[in-house]
Amino acid sequence: MPEKNVGDEDVKAAIERTDTGDGPGTDNLDDLPESDFVGCAEDDAGAGPQATATIPYDCPVANFIDELSATGHVTHTSYKKTSVTLHHNAGRLSHQDVLDVWTVRPASAHFDVDAAGAVAQYVKVNEYAWAVGNTAGNQSSISIEMANATLAPNWTVGEATWKNAARLAGWLFAEVIGERPSRSNLFYHHHWSSTVCAGPYMDRIYDEVLAAAQVSYDHFKDAHPTPRPDAEPVAVERRR
After folding, report:
1. For the segment 154-174, what is each residue's pLDDT rounded down to a tens digit?
2. Is the pTM of this model over 0.85?
3. 132-142, pLDDT tens digit by residue?
4. How far, CA to CA in Å, does 154 sit from each of 26, 188, 206?
């Protein structure tokens, strides 16, 4: 059975972890591409839809894009994406918990998949998330975080989480990257920097994750085409 989500305790532990290898990819933030760091102009959640739309995925996508942007921990410069990178949260975190961690720690990623398999988006897919601790990786890869089911030393990830992360990866390969997922473009975080992320459990099941992403890619390539992410689809209302 997964361990109980302990909320604030896991957030605190995730903030304090120093071996994650995430971040903007340089110790000198002046070396990053120019960023406008524009946040949401309206803090009142009841004031209407958020300004920045999520991807046109065929499942609900909770929208944290403007709230993450307001932290300054993302670079609003677009790049051609050629790979997807999977991470683990280093905690049993909700979507809101993930934002709380990144509000304090200079890090971000494009997506998170929680314990139930639900998806949230924090960074526009073509932008530079502060995710892998490597400039080239942050420029070229779309990062997907996954909630842990258990903590150290195994850092397991629940089946609903990793399967939905693989499905999302397949969609991204089909609709954004334009290539079939393979060992040369579906990575774990440790491909880019010195870290154990996405953890020993995910290392053991990499072949299953890749196969699931390939099945998803094939499904979306055969399905009726969806609008490209830069088509500014209608945002999905964030679930609480």
Report:
1. 999 999 999 999 999 999 999
2. no
3. 999 999 999 99
4. 29, 15, 15
Per-residue confidence (pLDDT) for residue 238, from 0 to 100 = 41
Q: Which domains does the chain have, with CATH numbers?
A: 58-231 (3.40.80.10)
Token reading at 160: 């609903």
